[in-house]
Amino acid sequence: MPGVGPKSAERMAFHILRLPHSEAKALAYSILKVKESIKFCKVCGNLSEEDLCGICDNPQRDKHIICVVEQPTDIISIEKSGVFRGLYHVLGGSLSPLDGVGPENLRVKELLARVRTRKAEEVIVATDSDSEGETTALYLARLLKKEKIKVTRIAYGLPMGSNLEYADQPTLAKALKGRTPI
By C-alpha distance, which of 134, 135, 89 is closest to 109? Predict the structure, then answer.
């Protein structure tokens, strides 16, 4: 499992071995049920039990702003902030020519179709700040500029409550470039 180290995996394995048969069976059933019942939203690519996820199906969301993310887990993080009230579009990854991932492997065509048919006014690119995420952001910005809509990138910088002396140079550089008026 991603993010689970050898020690944690070992503890989980022994915990499962100690479970009564009925509890182990219930755990296995729950995993299968999730695998069978969760699918991708047919509009944005988010995880959902229905054809449309709760965000796409919510009439209170701003239909003119689309936030582009790499994975459904990114939506969860943004939603926890409680700030964004628009829609999302999940690419399903980021451009990585070295790994053989090009635009045709991502949901780029679907994004362009949504922008055109939904009359989007702004697309916020919220890809990771690694080289693949930055490449993807630049690629999308170039494509979306042709659609004559506002294209923005999420700001990067220092976490709240942190000290400048502990910031790495790329983070500090991004924070300075993405500064806002007060």
Answer: 89
Whole-angstrom Cα distance, residue 141 to residue 123?
9
Q: How far apart are CA 104 and CA 121, in angstroms?
A: 25
Residue 116 neighbours by CB distance under 10 Å: 11
In sequence order, the 6+-apart residues with CB closer than 8 A to the CB of 40 are 46, 47, 48, 90
At 31, which amino acid appears? I
Pairwise CA distance, residues 57 & 54, whole Å: 5
Q: How far is Cα 40 from Cα 48, in angstroms, rounded to an integer?
A: 6
- CATH topology (fold) of 51-153: Dna Topoisomerase Vi A Subunit; Chain: A, domain 2 (3.40.1360)
Contact 49, 37 (CB under 8 A): yes
108-131 pLDDT, tens per residue? Answer: 999 999 999 888 999 999 999 889
pTM across the whole model: 0.83
